[in-house]
Amino acid sequence: MAYDYEKSIRPGKLPHIWCPGCGHGIVMKGLIRAMDACELDRSKTAIVSGIGCASRMPGYLDACTLHTAHGRAAAFATGVKMARPDMTVIVVGGDGDGTAIGGNHFIHACRRNIDMTYVVMNNYIYGMTGGQFSPTTPTGDMASTTPYGNPDPTFDISKLAIGAGATFVARTTAFHATQIDKLIAEGIRHKGMAVIEIIDDCPTTYGRRNKFRSVVDMMKRLKDMTVPVAAASKMSAEQLEGKILTGVLFKEERPEYTAQYQQVIERAQGA
Amino acid sequence: MAKKVALLQGNDACAHGAIYAGCKFFGGYPITPSTEVAEVLSGELPKVGGKFIQMEDEIGAIASVIGASLAGSKALTATSGPGMSLKQELIGYACIAEVPIVIVNVMRGGPSTGMPTGPGQSDVMQAKWGTHGDHAAIAVAPASCQEIFEETVRAFNLAEKFRMPVQILYDEIVGHMRERVEFPEPGELEVIDRSAPTVAAEDYKPYDPTQGQVPPLAAFGSGYKFHVTGLNKAPDGFPTTKAELVDAEERRQIAKVMDHVDEIEKNEEYQTEDADVIIWAFGSTSRSARYAVNELRKEGIKAGLFRPITLWPFPEKRTAELARQAKAIIVPELNLGQMIYEVERVAKDACTITGINRVDGEPINPGQIMDRVKEVL
Questions:
Q1: Does B57 touch chain A (CB under 8 A)?
Q2: Does domain B268-376 have CATH number 3.40.50.920?
Q3: Where are the domains of chain B?
Q4: Looking at CA atoms only, how far is residue A266 from chain B in angstroms?
Q5: B315 vs A: CB within 8 A
Q6: Which label site among A4, A139, B73, B306 has the fewest CB atoms less than 10 Å from its CB?
């Protein structure tokens, strides 16, 4: 029997706004499967986003959903989680939203190790505003604001998250659809800041400018550019040149922020 | 039993007022001269089971406050000048998404970094217009430590009742002066909580105009699943660009305040009954003005003080009435002329209107006001 996504999607809210071939729909289905796998009570689940194509996702999902301002999702989510530590908090958004305008909130949410799952859909571009380069656009690539090729160095979002203190960091791609739910579910179950980077594709504003002739080409790129962490351990540096690792990249146990704050309350109340 | 009495700084009084009002969340970023509000709440909030978080910047601070409020907590942030400017975008978010939050702005000079430890009344127009788009604004402007306590409680009440951001505006002089503050007993001051929905969870619409001008707000996690966005939205909370829905939403959000001005407005008048000259002053400036009125009365000059405690919405009706009664209105402000434009808007041609302005980090003293009164008479 086909998987029942319908029960997780708000009636009357589809079709979604994403372009044909965009990977965000694959991620949304993965997120739904992950929430189901974790048996989340949707009335106790907050899904928070900023601005951009990916950030429109919460509107389609049946839960407590919060579509905020550009870049601020992690900070709004921090307030929700602090006020209601019993809620499951999931942040969804794009690379520009999360690591450019929202970079400060992103790294500090990682530093605090607050219990939320941040799903970053990294398609290397600002899609909604028409294809301007983002902090993850590869150097040299074309975007609407890099007519001579992107001069900027790029962020590795997963490394950024690990460096900033997130205690669960995983990466996969829209091509690896069956891995998405497993990694998000593991992130949801993890007590602390979980970052799931999903490299996906924007055929309309990135692919078109960067000589990908079709969505299939873009998906093929996602397949070819990645190596699972387990396989990578057996590969040479030359073989790994230009490859991106997928799977759980980092995991550690460290005190979670709202739990730590509960101890502050107990100290203040003289317990 | 005698009431609890303490010698408190204005900023401390604000923090204690917030606790009295039922504040359970503070998200802030340190900035002079507002910092003591955060410092006191970092100690007081956990005692009542509340949460304090020092965020990474001012934008994160107000974002966390909006998130906490949506999750059901009364929530506060405190800032000054440049921090207020950083919060502006999300004040607009709280306006359109109708989220009750309270923002304290302890005013200093400016623009930019200006004079961080000097007083100013430089953000009164920022309080009214400081976000993009059309929106209503409520701001209160206490002038003493006791009043800061009480107006902080009222600011929370207004935020919860009208489901919107409310600002508490006072200048550094009031924020840092120390005065006797009497703590009201529980129940002595009214404390209002937002109205919760009574409809079944599946029928809940967070912006349903049939539920009144201020539709009830459910809390995340309370069993209601709904969508909140900064986009223009239909009554169910989902984005729309339908002209009639967008127009109706924006107009309702302004009307919910402007139809209740009488209830929101609060002023103090001193010796205005027979006054020939009205000194129109708020915050620390009003304290110099009151002194000046007393001195002028001793000399037989009929001066009076009009002190708006609610700064926004602007006290149009009473200001216009006083302008018809008096020969002149004097507007002393710690800026180069902001509120005077509003006084002129409602009272021009009725009497002489003149300002006294300082931006040098010094207060406007009673002598300056007395001199000007004598000039205009």
A1: yes
A2: yes
A3: 5-182, 201-261, 268-376
A4: 8
A5: no
A6: A4
Structural domains of chain A sorted by starting position, each given as residue range(s) with its CATH number in brackets = 20-229+239-269 (3.40.50.970)
Tell me whether residues B225 and A62 touch, CB distance under 8 A.
Answer: yes
- Out of A42, A84, A104, the one facing B72 most closely (by C-beta) is A84
CATH class of B5-182: alpha beta
Interface contact flag, B221 A62, Cβ < 8 Å: no
Any chain B CB within 8 A of the CB of A16?
no
Q: Which of B67, B93, B230 sits opposite A80 (nearest CB)?
A: B67
Fold match flag (B5-182 vs B268-376): yes
DSSP string, B13-76: HHHHHHHHHTEEEEEE---TTTHHHHHHHHHHTGGGT-EEEE-SSHHHHHHHHHHHHHTT-EEE
Distances (CA, A) of A203 to A16, A140, B295: 16, 18, 76
Among residues B120, B140, B128, B40, the alpha carbon closest in space to that of B80 is found at: B120
Q: What is the pLDDT of residues B138-190, one digit of tens each?
A: 999 999 999 999 999 999 999 999 999 999 999 999 999 999 999 999 999 99
Taking contacts as CB-CB distances below 8 angstroms, the residues of chain B near A52 are: none
Q: How confident is the model at residue A176 (pLDDT cuts 50, 70, 90)?
A: very high
HSE (side-chain half, CA atoms, 13 Å) at A271? 12
